[in-house]
């Protein structure tokens, strides 16, 4: 269950429950909206992951800068720089892909569109679906970011896909028996005799 669905379920529960209890539930509905707006989407799924990822990427960058001053092999330094570049690009991609969805969810919770206005409701759901798709690509884009920014990762992927997986696939799917089998003389003689009898 995703983070947004939990918050949406809380809001649905408050809307359904408010029909039965009236004004008592109205205060809980306001609390749920404030919780979603000011804590869940803004801090828990928006600001906090960005701050944590950014701080650790800056620490990694700082460590790589200090590694240059140490007496380490050049290959090790190059690998550390590549890893740091991958981490920085990952954080930038996370911020760019997660922020629009979180901002829209805060807006949609604070300014809900009634189902009695079907066009506006459908447009809102379409925007939410598009932004959710962009948010979900956040989890699938790592492979492509690493392929773009790391030559070592590209070599490893090539090794695994071409050398190992492709060879296995060729063996399983295109297995051709190239062995020469001796012709059985008895079956050949019986075929000749049957042809003579005809």
From TrEMBL:
Transmembrane parts of this sequence: 17-33, 39-62, 83-106, 126-149
The UniProt record lists the keyword Transmembrane: yes
Top-level lineage group: Eukaryota
Coiled coil: none
Gene3D superfamilies attached to this UniProt entry: Rhodopsin 7-helix transmembrane proteins
Keyword annotations: Membrane, Transmembrane, Transmembrane helix
SUPFAM superfamilies with a match to the protein in the record: Family A G protein-coupled receptor-like
Keyword Methyltransferase listed: no
Name of the protein in question: G-protein coupled receptors family 1 profile domain-containing protein
Source organism: Adineta steineri
């Amino acid at each position: 269950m995703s983070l947004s669905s939990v918050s949406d379920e809380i809001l649905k529960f408050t809307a359904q429950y408010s029909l039965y209890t009236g004004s008592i539930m109205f205060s809980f509905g306001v609390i749920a909206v404030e919780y979603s707006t000011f804590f869940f989407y803004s801090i828990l799924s928006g600001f906090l992951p960005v701050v944590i990822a950014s701080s650790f990427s800056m620490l990694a960058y700082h460590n790589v800068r200090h590694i240059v001053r140490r007496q380490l092999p050049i290959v090790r330094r190059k690998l550390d720089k590549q890893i740091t570049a991958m981490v920085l690009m990952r954080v930038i991609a996370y911020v760019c892909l997660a922020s629009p969805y979180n901002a829209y969810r805060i807006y949609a919770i604070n300014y809900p569109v009634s189902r009695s206005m079907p066009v506006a409701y459908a447009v809102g759901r379409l925007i939410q679906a598009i932004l959710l798709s962009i948010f979900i690509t956040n989890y699938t884009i790592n492979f492509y970011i690493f392929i773009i920014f790391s030559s070592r990762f590209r070599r490893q992927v090539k090794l695994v896909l071409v050398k190992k997986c492709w060879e296995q696939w060729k063996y399983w799917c295109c297995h051709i028996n190239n062995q020469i089998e001796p012709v059985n003389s008895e079956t050949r003689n019986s075929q000749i005799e049957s042809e003579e009898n005809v």
